[in-house]
Amino acid sequence: MEIITRDQLTSMFLSGDNLCGIILEGSNLKGIDLSSGVGEVAARLSCAKLAKSDLRGSRLKEVELIGADLRMANLEDSNLFGAKLMQADLSEANLRGCNLIGSVCEAANMNRANLSGTNMRRSDLKETTMVGAILAYSRLMGANINDADLTDANLRYANLQYASLVGSILRNVDLSQADLSFADLTKADLSGASLRGAIIVGANFQDSDLRGVDFEGADMTDAKFTSGSTQ
């Protein structure tokens, strides 16, 4: 099977071709711009096969990647502002330093992905699985992370101000030095998590599982706990 080149893909996109389901596994697409084509509409790559592809520094603003296969893809420093990644498979992908502001990643698979330093402000991560993912220094202010699975994830120094993590699984998560000011962690499972030195001012832990949580040095001013929480 002949691998489509970056120039060929760009030409197809600008010609208005249907790119849904296109096979691009292992392709070198570094720096490609698929964010504004015919009628200023971003590319539609739903169900595209992009596993192990090189997309470093690519411009994918508002691109549709619903159900796409991006396993082990390299998207470092790419612009995915407002991208649609629902049910996409990004397991073990490199997303370091990406712009994912306002992206929709509902029910996506980000297990063991590297998301360190990403900007995911106001993104929709509802029901996303991020087991073992690296999210250190990431910005998740105001993000919807309800019912997500972040078991064993690294969220050291992450900014989660005003984020919603209702019902999320955060077992054994490293949230040391993270900022969870006014975050909603109602009914979350935080058993075994580290919140050493974290800022949890005004955070809501009502009805959460807090067994074995390390709060040493955390700023817990006005944080909400109830008898329904397990400790």
Shape: elongated
Portion in strands: under 5%
Number of strands: 0
From the N-terminal CA to the C-terminal CA, the straight-line distance is 56 Å
Largest sheet composition:
none
Q: Could you give the order of the helices and strands?
A: H
**Oligomer class:** single chain
Low-confidence stretches: none
Separate helix tally: 1
Radius of gyration: 19 Å
Helix content: under 10%
Mean pLDDT, nearest integer? Answer: 94
The helix-and-strand class reads: little secondary structure
What does this structure look like?
It is a single chain. The mean pLDDT is about 95. It is built from one helix and no strands. The chain has about 230 residues and is low in regular secondary structure. The N and C termini lie far apart (about 55 Å). The radius of gyration is 19 Å and the shape is elongated. It is about 5% helix and about 0% strand.
Name a few traits of the molecule.
1 helix; about 5% helix
